[in-house]
Amino acid sequence: MLRIARALRSRLPRSGGCRAVSTAAPTPTDDGAGEGISHRMVSVNGINMHVAEKGEGPTVLLLHGFPELWYTWRHQMHGLAARGFRAVAPDLRGFGDTDAPPAAAAYSILHIVGDLISLLDSLGQDKVFVVGHDWGSMVAWNLSMFRPDKVKAMVNLSQVFTPRNPTRKSLEYLRTVFGDDYYICRFQEPGKIEAEFARLGTAWVLKKFLTYRNPGPIYITEDQGCGSSDSKIPLPSWLSEVDINYYTSKYEKAGFTGGLNYYRSLDLNWELTAPWTGACIKVPAKFIVGDLDLTYHSPGAQDFIHKGGLKNYVPLLDEEYNRKIKILTDVSIYL
């Protein structure tokens, strides 16, 4: 697993019933980052999923966050392939070229993990390494909790494991702590935030999210929304206009609703995961987070990470390795 973590870090731009249904590749990128990466569509769990792949050897499943795509992992895929791994990066349900069912209830964590189990079956893999970022980390934690038999080990970035609170639903907690203007609370009403994003323009919204470096919570007020698209957003060295153009082309085609439905399923997930209250993650794990990541500054997060809470729920956490790299300096949620 150390080789996987090193491959990830070396390429981090700073700051059943399954069948292949198509081998058509999505629109290629112009910066050469996608060179040698193959693309195909696979039928999984009742939807068609776009999958990017490179390399041969033990499989590493790469899970993106919001608002991202398989493209998030393009550099890491080259690094992993060069080190003798098979890198597999899907567009998750609702993102990019993967199908996006219209109902928010179709985005429960059981649906998402079910998609991945079906994908692993289609790849002919009994067990894989898993790497997640942001929402992809949340999916990876749950995949490892539901089906530890499918996971050799995992590396999660940004989003720490969150044990289920049996006494309070997720949205109730968020509204109590942050208020109704907190971005996740504002995401709940179908169509409203989509209209706000349309007003601002897809490219501007993507730049706003992907360059976010404020460790404080994100608020979207009723009167000001997400701000004004008249403001210019400078790009960091690791994010180019070519990258933004690729993301924009996919989000203008598929929209943001699929990704937003992950947030709209939080309370449904709370209900469905009641059988796993108090459950631990019983696979070897590493956790990496930036010191400017807003999740690292959520109430109680640092105490949970540093004072034994995370280790209690993830007993196979590699403590020695995490002491060295867990907190990346001057790094936000998009590492």
TrEMBL record:
InterPro entries in UniProt: AB_hydrolase_1, AB_hydrolase_fold, Epox_hydrolase-like
Region (Disordered): 16-35
EC number from the UniProt entry: 3.3.2.10
Domain named AB hydrolase-1: residues: 58-167
Reactions performed catalytically: (24S)-24,25-epoxycucurbitadienol + H2O = (24R)-24,25-dihydroxycucurbitadienol; an epoxide + H2O = an ethanediol
UniProt xrefs under Gene3D superfamilies: alpha/beta hydrolase (3.40.50.1820)
A single GO molecular function term of this UniProt record: epoxide hydrolase activity
First-tier enzyme category under EC: hydrolase
Functional pathway: Secondary metabolite biosynthesis; terpenoid biosynthesis
Keywords: Hydrolase
Family, similarity comment: Belongs to the AB hydrolase superfamily. Epoxide hydrolase family.
Known role: Epoxide hydrolase involved in the biosynthesis of cucurbitacin and mogroside tetracyclic triterpene natural products (e.g. siamenoside I and mogrosides IV, V and VI). Cucurbitacins have cytotoxic properties and exhibit deterrent taste as a defense barrier against herbivores. Mogrosides are nonsugar highly oxygenated compounds used as high-intensity zero-calorie sweeteners; they also possess pharmacological properties such as regulating immunity, lowering blood sugar and lipid levels, protecting the liver, and acting as antioxidants and antitumor agents.
Designated name of the protein: soluble epoxide hydrolase
